Structure prediction request, 368 residues.
Amino acid sequence: MNILFVNNFRFRGGGEEFLLELLPGLIKKGARVGIVCRPHTPLVTMFKNYPVEIYPIEKTGLKGLLSFFTFARIINKGRYDVICIQRGHDIVQAWFAALLSGSQPRMTYTVHVADFIKSRFLLSRMHRIVTISQHIKDKLESYQPSLRGSVSIIHHGIDLDAFTKGTLKTGFIRDRFGLSKDIPLISTSGSMWKNQIEFLDALVEIRKEIPAVRYLLLTPMADMPQLTEFRERARALGVEGSILWMDALPKGDMPSYYADIDLAISTFRNEGFGLWVVEALAMGTPVVAFAEGGVRDSLENCPAGVLIRNGAQEMAAEVIRILRDKGVRKVMSDAGPRWVIERFSRERMIDEYYSFFNSLVPVISADK
Prediction:
Protein backbone atom coordinates (compact mmCIF):
# COMPACT_ATOMS: atom_id res chain seq x y z
CA MET A 1 0.00 0.00 0.00
CA ASN A 2 1.49 3.32 -1.12
CA ILE A 3 0.18 6.52 0.49
CA LEU A 4 1.11 10.05 -0.58
CA PHE A 5 0.40 12.79 1.96
CA VAL A 6 -0.01 16.41 0.84
CA ASN A 7 0.85 19.24 3.23
CA ASN A 8 1.96 22.66 1.96
CA PHE A 9 1.92 24.45 5.31
CA ARG A 10 4.93 26.71 5.75
CA PHE A 11 5.46 26.10 9.46
CA ARG A 12 5.40 23.33 12.05
CA GLY A 13 2.01 23.10 13.69
CA GLY A 14 -0.51 20.54 14.84
CA GLY A 15 -0.92 18.94 11.43
CA GLU A 16 2.80 18.37 11.09
CA GLU A 17 3.06 16.92 14.61
CA PHE A 18 0.17 14.61 13.73
CA LEU A 19 2.14 13.27 10.74
CA LEU A 20 5.17 12.71 12.95
CA GLU A 21 3.03 10.57 15.25
CA LEU A 22 1.28 8.67 12.44
CA LEU A 23 3.71 8.02 9.61
CA PRO A 24 6.40 5.97 11.42
CA GLY A 25 3.66 3.65 12.63
CA LEU A 26 2.20 3.22 9.15
CA ILE A 27 5.65 2.41 7.81
CA LYS A 28 6.21 -0.13 10.57
CA LYS A 29 2.99 -1.87 9.52
CA GLY A 30 4.22 -2.14 5.94
CA ALA A 31 2.94 0.97 4.17
CA ARG A 32 5.14 2.96 1.82
CA VAL A 33 4.80 6.68 2.52
CA GLY A 34 5.62 9.91 0.69
CA ILE A 35 4.96 13.60 1.39
CA VAL A 36 4.43 16.44 -1.06
CA CYS A 37 5.33 19.73 0.61
CA ARG A 38 6.79 23.16 -0.04
CA PRO A 39 10.59 23.49 -0.29
CA HIS A 40 12.43 24.83 2.77
CA THR A 41 9.63 24.00 5.20
CA PRO A 42 9.92 21.90 8.39
CA LEU A 43 8.46 18.82 6.69
CA VAL A 44 11.48 18.59 4.40
CA THR A 45 13.69 17.58 7.36
CA MET A 46 11.25 16.30 10.01
CA PHE A 47 11.39 12.74 8.68
CA LYS A 48 15.11 12.46 8.01
CA ASN A 49 15.34 9.50 10.40
CA TYR A 50 12.51 7.61 8.70
CA PRO A 51 12.11 6.04 5.24
CA VAL A 52 9.65 8.70 4.09
CA GLU A 53 10.00 9.94 0.50
CA ILE A 54 9.90 13.76 0.51
CA TYR A 55 8.85 15.64 -2.62
CA PRO A 56 9.38 19.42 -2.24
CA ILE A 57 7.33 21.19 -4.91
CA GLU A 58 7.32 24.95 -5.46
CA LYS A 59 3.83 26.49 -5.55
CA THR A 60 4.66 30.00 -6.78
CA GLY A 61 6.01 31.46 -10.01
CA LEU A 62 6.63 29.42 -13.14
CA LYS A 63 7.50 26.33 -11.09
CA GLY A 64 4.17 26.72 -9.36
CA LEU A 65 2.38 26.59 -12.72
CA LEU A 66 4.28 23.42 -13.58
CA SER A 67 3.66 21.86 -10.16
CA PHE A 68 0.57 20.01 -11.36
CA PHE A 69 2.64 18.06 -13.89
CA THR A 70 5.44 17.47 -11.39
CA PHE A 71 2.90 16.18 -8.90
CA ALA A 72 1.32 13.90 -11.51
CA ARG A 73 4.71 12.36 -12.33
CA ILE A 74 5.29 11.70 -8.62
CA ILE A 75 1.96 9.87 -8.39
CA ASN A 76 2.78 7.69 -11.39
CA LYS A 77 6.42 7.02 -10.59
CA GLY A 78 5.64 6.22 -6.96
CA ARG A 79 2.59 4.13 -7.89
CA TYR A 80 0.65 5.81 -5.11
CA ASP A 81 -2.69 4.19 -4.31
CA VAL A 82 -4.00 6.84 -1.92
CA ILE A 83 -3.57 10.62 -1.81
CA CYS A 84 -4.19 12.02 1.68
CA ILE A 85 -4.68 15.81 1.82
CA GLN A 86 -4.32 17.54 5.16
CA ARG A 87 -5.56 21.04 4.40
CA GLY A 88 -8.41 22.17 2.21
CA HIS A 89 -6.36 24.65 0.20
CA ASP A 90 -4.26 21.75 -1.15
CA ILE A 91 -7.23 19.91 -2.67
CA VAL A 92 -7.10 21.69 -6.04
CA GLN A 93 -3.41 20.89 -6.61
CA ALA A 94 -3.76 17.25 -5.55
CA TRP A 95 -7.02 16.58 -7.37
CA PHE A 96 -5.85 18.08 -10.66
CA ALA A 97 -2.51 16.23 -10.43
CA ALA A 98 -4.37 12.98 -9.84
CA LEU A 99 -6.45 13.60 -12.98
CA LEU A 100 -3.30 14.32 -15.00
CA SER A 101 -1.66 11.16 -13.71
CA GLY A 102 -4.41 8.97 -15.15
CA SER A 103 -3.75 6.41 -12.40
CA GLN A 104 -6.96 6.98 -10.44
CA PRO A 105 -5.60 7.11 -6.88
CA ARG A 106 -8.20 7.36 -4.14
CA MET A 107 -8.48 10.91 -2.80
CA THR A 108 -8.89 11.44 0.94
CA TYR A 109 -9.07 14.59 3.04
CA THR A 110 -8.29 14.68 6.76
CA VAL A 111 -10.23 17.45 8.52
CA HIS A 112 -8.71 18.47 11.85
CA VAL A 113 -10.47 21.81 12.40
CA ALA A 114 -14.11 22.79 12.43
CA ASP A 115 -13.47 25.59 9.90
CA PHE A 116 -12.96 23.30 6.91
CA ILE A 117 -12.90 24.39 3.28
CA LYS A 118 -16.34 25.64 2.22
CA SER A 119 -16.51 24.29 -1.31
CA ARG A 120 -19.09 21.63 -2.07
CA PHE A 121 -17.45 20.98 -5.43
CA LEU A 122 -14.01 20.28 -3.95
CA LEU A 123 -15.36 18.25 -1.04
CA SER A 124 -17.27 16.08 -3.48
CA ARG A 125 -14.03 15.32 -5.37
CA MET A 126 -12.89 13.29 -2.35
CA HIS A 127 -13.61 9.58 -2.24
CA ARG A 128 -13.47 9.56 1.55
CA ILE A 129 -13.05 12.13 4.33
CA VAL A 130 -11.56 11.44 7.75
CA THR A 131 -12.15 13.72 10.68
CA ILE A 132 -11.21 13.66 14.34
CA SER A 133 -14.52 14.22 16.13
CA GLN A 134 -18.26 13.86 15.89
CA HIS A 135 -18.47 17.65 16.05
CA ILE A 136 -16.62 18.11 12.75
CA LYS A 137 -18.40 15.16 11.13
CA ASP A 138 -21.76 16.73 11.98
CA LYS A 139 -20.67 20.10 10.57
CA LEU A 140 -19.41 18.52 7.34
CA GLU A 141 -22.59 16.55 6.79
CA SER A 142 -24.76 19.52 7.66
CA TYR A 143 -22.89 21.67 5.14
CA GLN A 144 -23.04 18.98 2.46
CA PRO A 145 -25.59 16.21 3.17
CA SER A 146 -24.34 14.16 0.22
CA LEU A 147 -21.19 13.40 2.24
CA ARG A 148 -23.13 11.13 4.60
CA GLY A 149 -21.64 7.67 4.38
CA SER A 150 -18.24 8.89 3.21
CA VAL A 151 -17.03 10.61 6.41
CA SER A 152 -15.19 8.57 9.05
CA ILE A 153 -14.02 9.52 12.54
CA ILE A 154 -10.58 8.53 13.77
CA HIS A 155 -9.67 10.12 17.07
CA HIS A 156 -6.18 11.37 17.74
CA GLY A 157 -3.90 9.28 19.92
CA ILE A 158 -0.93 10.17 22.10
CA ASP A 159 2.39 8.60 23.03
CA LEU A 160 1.60 6.98 26.37
CA ASP A 161 5.29 6.58 27.16
CA ALA A 162 5.70 10.37 27.10
CA PHE A 163 2.46 11.16 28.91
CA THR A 164 2.45 8.94 31.99
CA LYS A 165 1.23 9.97 35.41
CA GLY A 166 3.76 9.97 38.23
CA THR A 167 6.89 9.80 36.08
CA LEU A 168 7.94 13.45 36.55
CA LYS A 169 8.90 15.61 39.49
CA THR A 170 6.60 18.54 40.14
CA GLY A 171 7.83 22.11 40.29
CA PHE A 172 8.41 22.87 36.62
CA ILE A 173 5.70 25.54 36.60
CA ARG A 174 5.33 26.38 40.26
CA ASP A 175 9.01 27.13 40.76
CA ARG A 176 8.89 29.69 37.95
CA PHE A 177 6.17 31.65 39.71
CA GLY A 178 7.17 30.95 43.29
CA LEU A 179 3.99 28.99 44.02
CA SER A 180 3.92 26.49 46.85
CA LYS A 181 2.17 23.14 46.43
CA ASP A 182 -0.82 24.29 48.47
CA ILE A 183 -1.69 27.12 46.03
CA PRO A 184 -4.51 25.90 43.74
CA LEU A 185 -3.31 26.20 40.14
CA ILE A 186 -5.73 25.88 37.23
CA SER A 187 -4.78 26.41 33.61
CA THR A 188 -5.83 26.70 29.98
CA SER A 189 -3.59 25.90 27.01
CA GLY A 190 -4.02 27.38 23.55
CA SER A 191 -4.02 30.55 21.48
CA MET A 192 -6.03 33.47 22.84
CA TRP A 193 -8.74 33.14 20.21
CA LYS A 194 -9.90 29.98 22.01
CA ASN A 195 -12.43 31.84 24.15
CA GLN A 196 -10.41 32.07 27.38
CA ILE A 197 -12.14 35.38 28.06
CA GLU A 198 -15.37 33.57 28.94
CA PHE A 199 -13.67 31.93 31.91
CA LEU A 200 -13.06 35.28 33.58
CA ASP A 201 -16.64 35.43 34.86
CA ALA A 202 -16.12 32.01 36.44
CA LEU A 203 -12.82 33.14 37.93
CA VAL A 204 -14.59 35.97 39.75
CA GLU A 205 -16.81 33.42 41.53
CA ILE A 206 -13.97 30.99 42.19
CA ARG A 207 -11.89 33.69 43.90
CA LYS A 208 -14.74 34.43 46.30
CA GLU A 209 -14.48 30.87 47.66
CA ILE A 210 -10.79 30.17 47.03
CA PRO A 211 -8.95 33.54 47.13
CA ALA A 212 -5.51 31.98 46.65
CA VAL A 213 -6.37 30.35 43.31
CA ARG A 214 -4.13 31.13 40.33
CA TYR A 215 -5.18 30.89 36.68
CA LEU A 216 -2.31 30.20 34.29
CA LEU A 217 -2.67 30.88 30.58
CA LEU A 218 -0.23 28.85 28.50
CA THR A 219 -0.45 30.64 25.17
CA PRO A 220 1.69 32.05 22.35
CA MET A 221 2.35 35.59 23.57
CA ALA A 222 1.73 37.13 20.17
CA ASP A 223 0.03 40.49 19.82
CA MET A 224 -3.60 39.85 18.89
CA PRO A 225 -6.94 41.54 19.64
CA GLN A 226 -8.13 38.67 21.84
CA LEU A 227 -5.12 39.07 24.13
CA THR A 228 -5.78 42.79 24.56
CA GLU A 229 -9.48 42.19 25.18
CA PHE A 230 -8.71 39.54 27.77
CA ARG A 231 -6.33 41.79 29.70
CA GLU A 232 -8.82 44.67 29.66
CA ARG A 233 -11.67 42.42 30.83
CA ALA A 234 -9.54 40.92 33.61
CA ARG A 235 -8.61 44.39 34.79
CA ALA A 236 -12.25 45.50 34.76
CA LEU A 237 -13.30 42.47 36.81
CA GLY A 238 -10.44 42.94 39.28
CA VAL A 239 -8.96 39.45 38.77
CA GLU A 240 -5.70 40.31 37.00
CA GLY A 241 -3.75 39.61 40.20
CA SER A 242 -4.80 35.96 40.03
CA ILE A 243 -3.68 35.48 36.42
CA LEU A 244 -0.31 34.11 35.33
CA TRP A 245 1.09 34.09 31.80
CA MET A 246 3.46 31.67 30.10
CA ASP A 247 4.51 31.49 26.46
CA ALA A 248 3.86 28.27 24.54
CA LEU A 249 6.09 25.39 25.57
CA PRO A 250 7.95 22.84 23.42
CA LYS A 251 6.06 19.57 23.19
CA GLY A 252 8.68 17.84 25.31
CA ASP A 253 7.90 20.13 28.25
CA MET A 254 4.15 19.62 28.17
CA PRO A 255 4.10 16.55 30.47
CA SER A 256 5.87 18.61 33.16
CA TYR A 257 3.29 21.36 32.69
CA TYR A 258 0.37 18.98 33.21
CA ALA A 259 2.06 17.41 36.22
CA ASP A 260 2.19 20.78 37.97
CA ILE A 261 -1.40 22.01 37.55
CA ASP A 262 -4.38 20.92 39.64
CA LEU A 263 -7.06 21.33 37.02
CA ALA A 264 -7.21 21.89 33.25
CA ILE A 265 -9.86 24.25 31.89
CA SER A 266 -11.08 24.06 28.27
CA THR A 267 -13.11 27.09 27.16
CA PHE A 268 -13.16 26.78 23.36
CA ARG A 269 -16.65 25.99 22.07
CA ASN A 270 -15.55 25.07 18.54
CA GLU A 271 -12.59 22.80 19.29
CA GLY A 272 -11.81 20.24 16.61
CA PHE A 273 -10.82 17.61 19.16
CA GLY A 274 -8.67 19.08 21.93
CA LEU A 275 -5.59 16.87 22.04
CA TRP A 276 -4.21 18.81 25.01
CA VAL A 277 -7.23 17.66 27.04
CA VAL A 278 -6.32 14.02 26.37
CA GLU A 279 -2.72 14.70 27.34
CA ALA A 280 -3.86 16.30 30.59
CA LEU A 281 -6.06 13.29 31.43
CA ALA A 282 -3.16 10.92 30.73
CA MET A 283 -1.02 12.85 33.21
CA GLY A 284 -3.70 12.56 35.90
CA THR A 285 -4.98 16.13 35.60
CA PRO A 286 -8.79 16.45 35.82
CA VAL A 287 -10.49 18.55 33.14
CA VAL A 288 -13.48 20.90 33.18
CA ALA A 289 -14.75 21.99 29.76
CA PHE A 290 -17.72 23.54 28.02
CA ALA A 291 -19.91 20.82 26.49
CA GLU A 292 -19.49 22.02 22.93
CA GLY A 293 -17.17 21.15 20.08
CA GLY A 294 -14.96 18.12 19.58
CA VAL A 295 -13.79 18.03 23.20
CA ARG A 296 -16.99 16.10 23.95
CA ASP A 297 -15.53 13.04 22.20
CA SER A 298 -12.86 12.70 24.86
CA LEU A 299 -14.87 13.83 27.89
CA GLU A 300 -18.39 12.45 27.44
CA ASN A 301 -18.93 9.98 30.31
CA CYS A 302 -15.28 10.40 31.33
CA PRO A 303 -14.81 9.90 35.11
CA ALA A 304 -11.90 12.36 35.06
CA GLY A 305 -13.70 15.22 33.35
CA VAL A 306 -16.75 17.44 33.69
CA LEU A 307 -18.70 18.90 30.77
CA ILE A 308 -20.37 22.24 31.50
CA ARG A 309 -23.70 22.93 29.81
CA ASN A 310 -24.89 26.08 31.62
CA GLY A 311 -22.13 28.66 31.40
CA ALA A 312 -19.73 30.38 33.77
CA GLN A 313 -21.68 29.89 37.01
CA GLU A 314 -21.79 26.12 36.59
CA MET A 315 -18.14 26.03 35.59
CA ALA A 316 -17.17 28.01 38.68
CA ALA A 317 -19.16 25.66 40.92
CA GLU A 318 -17.47 22.57 39.45
CA VAL A 319 -13.99 24.04 39.71
CA ILE A 320 -14.61 24.97 43.37
CA ARG A 321 -15.99 21.50 44.13
CA ILE A 322 -13.00 19.70 42.63
CA LEU A 323 -10.37 21.99 44.13
CA ARG A 324 -11.87 21.80 47.61
CA ASP A 325 -12.31 18.02 47.72
CA LYS A 326 -8.97 16.19 47.58
CA GLY A 327 -10.79 12.87 47.54
CA VAL A 328 -12.75 13.76 44.42
CA ARG A 329 -9.63 15.12 42.78
CA LYS A 330 -7.69 11.92 43.51
CA VAL A 331 -10.44 9.70 42.09
CA MET A 332 -10.49 11.81 38.92
CA SER A 333 -6.70 11.89 38.74
CA ASP A 334 -6.50 8.09 38.96
CA ALA A 335 -9.29 7.57 36.41
CA GLY A 336 -7.84 9.84 33.69
CA PRO A 337 -4.87 7.69 32.65
CA ARG A 338 -7.01 4.54 32.47
CA TRP A 339 -9.54 6.36 30.27
CA VAL A 340 -6.84 7.48 27.85
CA ILE A 341 -5.08 4.09 27.71
CA GLU A 342 -8.36 2.42 26.74
CA ARG A 343 -9.36 4.95 24.08
CA PHE A 344 -6.67 7.36 22.91
CA SER A 345 -3.33 5.59 22.47
CA ARG A 346 -1.15 6.38 19.48
CA GLU A 347 -1.12 2.68 18.59
CA ARG A 348 -4.92 2.61 18.33
CA MET A 349 -4.83 5.66 16.07
CA ILE A 350 -2.21 4.11 13.79
CA ASP A 351 -4.17 0.84 13.56
CA GLU A 352 -7.36 2.66 12.59
CA TYR A 353 -5.67 4.80 9.94
CA TYR A 354 -3.89 1.77 8.49
CA SER A 355 -7.19 -0.12 8.29
CA PHE A 356 -8.88 2.91 6.73
CA PHE A 357 -6.24 3.36 4.00
CA ASN A 358 -6.02 -0.37 3.42
CA SER A 359 -9.78 -0.58 2.89
CA LEU A 360 -9.39 1.66 -0.17
CA VAL A 361 -6.75 -0.48 -1.87
CA PRO A 362 -9.01 -3.33 -3.10
CA VAL A 363 -11.30 -0.72 -4.62
CA ILE A 364 -8.33 0.75 -6.48
CA SER A 365 -7.26 -2.65 -7.77
CA ALA A 366 -10.76 -3.34 -9.05
CA ASP A 367 -10.93 -0.01 -10.85
CA LYS A 368 -7.57 -0.56 -12.50
